[in-house]
Each structure stands twice: as structure tokens, then as C-alpha cells.
Amino acid sequence: MKLGLILLLTLGLSPLLQARSYPEIEYVRGRYADDTVFKRVSEYFDGEENQSGKIILRTDPSQRDGYYLVLSLDDDASDYPEGTRIGLKYISPDQKGEIVKATSLPTPIPDASEIWIGLTGEDAPADQKPVVAWMVVIYSPKGEVYTHHKSFLWEHPDVEKQD
Questions:
Q1: C-alpha–C-alpha distance, residues 34 and 74, integer Å
Q2: Element (H, E) at 147
């Protein structure tokens, strides 16, 4: 009897014990950053960009100047499994309509609690303007959403149409 009760309790709790939580996005801030923000002394010696404990993803990896969304996580991104992807939807001040970008986190995923997503090269808004509205989603290799965050205006992108 006791063995059956223990087995029932263990089996009933097993989905809860198997559920894993992944880092959540605490907040996102936007900023324009040029090449000098990313230049470290070590780069002068070895020619390699030192990401200084951040994960930096750019729409054009050959360009550093651009508009960045800086995601602050409540834990290290290395807690995500390999193949984790980041999706970005945004409305640019230069273009009409929604733009969608997606990429994978680097492998292996570094210990970092900040992820910088850069709209660089042709994707960078002109004149260092910020994007109008945005939504960021971090999701599993199978498409399950781990966490997401969106700007206030993402909720109301059609305000102009109401007039």
C-alpha cells in the first residue's frame, strides 16, 4: 500500500520535476551604437572582437554601427539548449510594414546575461533613429516560446489608422 502511494505521488510529480525553466527577459532597452562602443584593447592585438561578456548578434555581421535592442536576462543565456533561436519583429521609421528577422544563438552559448541584437548595415535605421515598435521572442529549436518582450507601441501599431 505504501509503495503504491509513493509510486503514485512520484509519477504525479514527475512532469513538475521534469519541467525546466529558462532565463526570462527582464527588460529591453534600445540604443544606437557605433563601432567605438565595441572596440576593446585586446582587439588591437589579436584582431578578434571581444564581446565582453555579452552575446552580440547583428543583421550584418560585417557592420557594427546600428540600432541595438539590448536584452537583459534574469540568468545566463548558457542555460538555453543549443539551437535556441531569437526572433525579432519590428517597425522601422524608414519602411512601411513589419520586418521579421531571426537567428540562432552562437554555439556553444556563452555565459552572458545580455544579448545585443543589432540592426546593422542596410537594416540600420537612417539618421540613428530608433525603431517605432518591436517584439523579441526567444524560442526553442522546436519553436516553443521560452520568453518574449515587446514595446508598448507594439500593442498599438495602427494608431494612425484610427484617426
A1: 26
A2: strand 145-150
Class of domain 21-162: mainly beta
Name the residue type at position 101. K
pLDDT single digits (tens) 21-52: 899 999 999 999 998 888 778 777 887 777 77
Q: 103-134 burial, b if ≥16 CB within 10 A, otherwise e?
A: eebeeebeebbebbbbbbeebbbeeeebbbbb
Q: What residue type is 66 in one-letter code?
A: G
What is the per-residue DSSP string for 49-115? ---TT-EEEESSTT---EEEEEEEESS-GGGSPTT-EEEEEEE-TTSSSEEEEEEEPPSSPPS-SEE
For the cut 80, the answer to whether the pLDDT of residue 7 exceeds it is: no
> Phi and psi at residue 44, in whole multiples of 5°?
-65, -25
Q: Single out the residue of 93, 32, 101 nearest to residue 60, CA to CA.
A: 101
